[in-house]
Design goal:
By secondary structure, this protein is mainly alpha-helical. The chain is 81% helix and 0% strand. The protein has a single domain, classed as de novo design (two linked rop proteins) (Up-down Bundle).
């Protein structure tokens, strides 16, 4: 009788260990899958940022002839683009991209004073492409942040945090705005 009880206890322990091992493996695999989704999401942002970086020289060249008095604005855009291209780490890239967005916003504001430029077919096409690219960046950024939120939440929740810690799953950073002006609601006056 004692042997049968010991056998049942041993069987329950084995089943329990198998269940724990399966849970551990499933949680580890989920963290790996989310980490890969984050990398994929970042690469989608990267593709759109590259597209924006490629459009900027054409935009600057198109605008250059019209904006003789806005040389500082053009130089700010060019310098911001160069800084964004050379930024290494994610925090550096996020800051550089925020600066570039601000410089582009300044350029578009300066363009408002030049009706001939605003009517130029080449400028209109570049502006539409840049606007479309900015929308794609915003969408990719939202998707990236959504995946980061799921990943970080799983990483921090118990008992998955045990797997995350032992598996070396580091927290991921959100793609956030570092330029205070981008956080403000635009003021419209008529």
């Amino acid at each position: 009788m004692l042997g049968a009880v010991t056998g049942v206890i041993l069987l329950v322990l084995i089943v329990l260990l198998v269940v724990i091992a399966l849970w551990w493996i499933a949680t580890y695999n989920r963290l790996v899958a989310l980490r890969e989704q984050i990398r994929n999401s970042w690469s989608q942002i990267d593709v759109q940022l590259k597209r924006r970086h490629d459009l900027i020289p054409n935009l600057v060249e198109t605008v250059k002839g019209y904006l003789q008095h806005e040389r500082g604005t053009l130089e700010a855009v060019t310098q911001a683009r160069a800084a964004a291209l050379s930024a290494g780490s994610m925090p550096e890239r996020l800051q550089a991209e925020g600066t570039l967005s601000g410089a582009l916003r300044g350029l578009m504001i300066a363009v408002e004073a030049y009706p001939d430029l605003k009517a130029s077919a080449n400028f209109i096409q570049l502006q539409e492409e840049l606007t479309g690219t900015e929308n794609k960046i915003a969408f990719a950024r939202q998707h990236y942040n959504d995946v980061v939120a799921v990943y970080n939440a799983l990483r921090l929740s118990f008992p998955a945090s045990i797997v995350a810690t032992s598996g070396g799953f580091a927290p991921e950073e959100y793609f956030e705005l570092d330029v205070p002006a981008e956080r403000n609601v635009p003021r419209v006056q008529f």
